Amino acid sequence: ARTARPGAQRYISYRHVEGTTSPISATNSWDYVERFPPPVPEVPLSPTFTSSSSQTLDSSHTSYSNYGFAPVVSGPPPMPSHWALEVFDGNCPVSQFKSGHASETTSCHGAQNSEALHRLVDDGYIMVSEIDFDRAAVQVRLYWRPVDNRTRILYMTKSSRSQDLLYCVPLTQLRAIRKDATLQLCRASSQDGHLKLWAKLNFVFYERMVLFYSTFVAMKRQDSQDPLPTALIEDLDLREHQEFGGVIRDRDLRHALRLFRDTNSGVVRLEASALRGPREGVPIWTAFITRYSFDPDWMALESGGIVTMAALKPPPYVFLAGYGLVRNRHGDYLLQFDTTDDAAAIVRTWSGVCRNSRR
Q: How far, in Å, CA of 132 to CA of 351, rounded?
C-alpha cells in the first residue's frame, strides 16, 4: 500500500462541477459545441442514474436518483446552472498587490443604460457572478442566457446624488487587458479597430483578478457569438513569469499546462488551457499553489509520466461545464504528461520555485 509523502496534508473533498448543466461541452479538438438546454423530462417509470464527470483512475463515480417510482413534481422547471456560479465561492486565498493598487480607481466610460437590469431579466439572462470594487462602491456582474449561451457584463454604481448608474454590454464586445493591479476592458472602434477604454477594474488581491479574468475570457469564448474579431481576442497574458510549460493528457484530450509566478503579488499558480482549436489558450482550470511553494515534496514524480499533487486546497477552479480533474484512490490530483521528460521537468522546476521561496 502506498504511504503519504511527508510535509503534505491530504485534502480529500473537492469542488464538484455539475455535468451538462450548461449548454457547452468539449470535443476532442477542444472546440465547443453549442447545445440548447433539454426540455424538462417526463416523469420516469424506472430507475434513473447520472454519471459524474469527475472520475478517478481506479473507479467510476456514479450517483443514483429516483430509485423506484419518481414523485410527481409540480411547478416551474429548475433554474439552469452555470459553472461560473462555483468560481467566486469566497474560499480562494488572497494575496495583495505590492504596488499599483493604491494609485488606481475603478471606473466606467461607457454609455449609461437605465433600463439595463430590466432588459436583462426580460431577455432571459441569469446572473452567474458578482464582484465588488472600491469598497462596494461598484458592483460588476456577469450574466448568461441559457437558450443561446449569450453573455453580458453589467457595471453598477451610484452618482454623487445617489442615483443608480448602469452600464451594460455583451462580453463579446470587450477585450480584457491587465495593467498592474487593474483589468482594462476595452471596446474596438468601428472605424479603425483601435481599442478604447470602456471600464477599468481595480483589484486589491491578485487571485480575484485571475478568477475574474479567466471567467470573463471563458464565458466570452463560449458565447454563441464567437468567433470574434481579432482585435477583441485576448492574448491570454496576465504579465506573469512563466516558470514551466508542457502538455498534459486528460483521458483522450491534451491541454497546455503552465506554471506561473506573479512578481507583483508573489502568487504561484497552475493553469491548464485548450491546446488546439479555435479556443486555443482559453483557460480550463487554474489552481493557486502559493501555500505549498515551501514544500518541494508536495509535487512528486510517479511512473509513466504522472505527477501527483498530494494536497490542494482550495481545489482547482474550473471554467468549463462538466469538467473534473482526475484523482487517484488516495485523493491526489494527477497530472498525466505527454512525455516523461515534461513530467520530470516540472518537478525539477517546482523544487527550484521552493528554493527561491525560502530566500
A: 37
Separation CA 331–CA 337 (nearest Å): 19
How buried is residue 132: exposed, middle or buried, by Cβ count under 10 Å (0-12/13-18/19+)? exposed
Grid cell at residue 65: 436518483
User: Rounded to the nearest 5°, which phi and psi values hold at 207?
Assistant: -60, -40
Q: Quick one: average pLDDT of 284-306?
A: 96
Any idea which residue has 470602456 for its cell?
198
**pLDDT tens for each residue of 105-145:** 999 999 999 999 999 999 999 999 999 999 999 999 999 99
pLDDT in tens, 46-87: 333 233 333 333 333 322 233 233 344 455 666 678 999 999
What SS3 class is residue 344? Answer: helix
Q: Determine the Cα–Cα distance for residues 181 and 271; give it in Å rounded to an integer.
A: 20
Query: Is a pLDDT exceeding 50 seen at residue 303?
Result: yes
pLDDT-derived band of residue 358, with 50, 70 and 90 as boundaries? confident
From CA 20, how far away is CA 46, in angstroms rounded? 22
Cell of 247: 502538455
Residue whose entry in the numeric block shows the C-alpha cell 457595471 = 155
Give the amino acid at 251.
Answer: R
Q: Is 283 left (phi over 0), alpha (psi -120 to 50) or beta?
A: beta
Spatial distance between the Cα atoms of 100 and 265, rounded to a whole number of angstroms: 11
Residue 333 cell numbers, joined:
490530483
| Dist. CA 281–CA 324, nearest whole Å | 18
Taking alpha carbons only, the member of 136, 145, 152, 144 closest to residue 185 is 152
Q: Are 249 and 22 in contact (CB under 8 A)?
A: no
Q: State whether the Cα torsion 148-125-109-176 is positive or negative.
A: negative
